Amino acid sequence: MSDSKINALVSPEGSLEILSTFEVNRLKDRSEGGLYQLFRQCALAVLNTGVETDDCKTLNEAHADFDVRLVPQPRGLKLELINAPAHAFVDGEMLRAMREHLFSVLRDIIYSYSIPLSAAGFKRDEPEGITNLVFHILRNARVLQAGRRPDLVVCWGGHSINEREYQYSKEVGHQLGLRGLNICTGCGPGAMKGPMKGATIGHAKQRVKDGRYIGLTEPGIIGAEAPNPIVNELVILPDIEKRLEAFLRTGHGVIVFPGGVGTAEEILYLLGILLHPENADLPFPVVFTGQEENAEYFEMIDQFIRNALGDEAASKYEIIINDPERVAQTMKQGMHEVEVFRRAKQDAYYFNWMLKIDPVFQMPFEPTHERMRNLELHRDQPAHLVAANLRKAFSGIVAGNVKESGIRQVEEFGPFEISGDPTLLEPLGAMLTEFVAQNRMKLPGSGAYEPSYRITDREA
Question: Which residue ranges does the record assign to the Pyrimidine/purine nucleotide 5'-monophosphate nucleosidase N-terminal domain (predicted)?
């Protein structure tokens, strides 16, 4: 791909509310309290869709001369792009998908960071306020559609997967599309793109005109997992915790493909919530699936879960190997059970209000060396708290692997140290070692993986 760059004036595509002078000024503000750097970072990621990189720091350094400016117009707003990647354009015109994603970024950053400053009910340090914020961001993005029956399948899995695994995820998406089900992923490449691509074919065969390919991301990860062009509903949540909550509030079931630490983080978040006693009777279909060659991978994941969280956690999911049709049938049946349950409880189809999420899963975890060392990784606590703390450990490793802030910390202070109960950490270490061996930590071709973590013995 050519390294050439282009300057352009871009008009809105998709939904964008009229901006106030206050909002425009915050977007232009290059100080620490302003939104310019955040917007620029996310805009650059969107414009690099299709580029094989999962390193935010490297991406920003390669495009240090990129700039984005707001240009007020009599009938709205345009964006002036300076030194934008040329591959985002065809014959001088920006690809519609990228233009749409660009203004989705603008919409969500403005809404997430401006509205809560003045509106009641957006208390970021209270559980109800956090859920309220997630709801309003999704509603503002027009993701929540009243009256639509449960049909949204969340697909999780690695951005760094091999071609066979990608094709399998695509076939699962195809089978889901044939059954009229829609797809929600983390919006990036690999196992996030495959199900969407397959579903487009299934939807085409069934003449589904309004297929939904929802991508949920957050500023820290978007540079490593730029939205794939199939995404037609992109939402940027403020942080990983709100992103994960959005998956479970809007989705009606989850399919997990092979992945690395990011996928493990998602699994622990999901199981930690489903283990809460108040969610015991809540129907929420979960399937782990892959090809025959992935059977050992899922056996490893299953054993890790049983060791860390117990057999009850393992009862929350089904493992289906090499059978895309059965995966889709299981999800279709699960959608029916969700619909019956929510109708009986008079709960909304479009937002899972009844799902109980413990505050420990909602409060943002910003990994630092001190916080990673002090994680409570022991068994003397309820299973859902074990899951919560293991989730934070994986979140820190993800940050050290692909997020600019995490990469810089590891470069300056060395790998994050993880310590605790050996009966938890030995299986954790073994699983991480296997992720490295299977090239699930970084994209192929990005060089030898240097671990962003080190498992140590905690002194008594």
Answer: 9-112
